[in-house]
From TrEMBL:
Annotated GO biological process: electron transport chain
One GO cellular component term noted in the UniProt record for this chain: periplasmic space
Name of the protein: Cytochrome c
InterPro entries per the UniProt record, alphabetical: Cyt_c/b562, Cyt_c_II, Cyt_c_prime, Cyt_c_prime_subgr
Signal peptide extent: 1-22
PROSITE patterns reported for this sequence: CYTCII
Lineage, uppermost ranks: Bacteria, Pseudomonadati, Pseudomonadota, Alphaproteobacteria, Acetobacterales
PTM info: Binds 1 heme group per subunit.
GO molecular function: electron transfer activity; heme binding; iron ion binding
Entry keyword set: Electron transport, Heme, Iron, Metal-binding, Signal, Transport
Coiled-coil boundaries: none
Domain of life, source organism: Bacteria
Organism, scientific name: Plastoroseomonas arctica
Amino acid sequence: MRLRLIASALLATLSLTGVALAQTEVITARREGLRGVGAHMEAMKAIADARGNPAPAVERIDAMTAFFTTFPTRFPPGSDVPQGTNPGQTRALPVIWTDNAGFLQANANMLTQITALRGAATGGDPAAFAAAFQQTGATCGGCHRTYRAR
């Protein structure tokens, strides 16, 4: 009987460890993806600021579209381990899970804005690209204010 109890406790501990590792992986993946988006935005900022040819930005915009298309799936229940704790760290606020409809709408808004940014990039007009880039940054910031801790 005692051996069964020990075995059950061990299995429960291993199960929880597996869940914690999975949550750490999803947090790490979304954090890395968002860093990638930040790098794309920095590179496009240089184009917008210089009023340069926006065509090279299309590849970056496509990468951002691919990321944001699956972005909501990167926040499964339980992946809200606060920053500064282990095993994972996130700046995602609980409102992502308590107002998931709002979060999904914010992501849809981002995808709409990225589509507009792509249109401006393929149109070749540096001024239109700069304006669309500025609006894309504002859309990013709007999501950050509501759904991300500073």
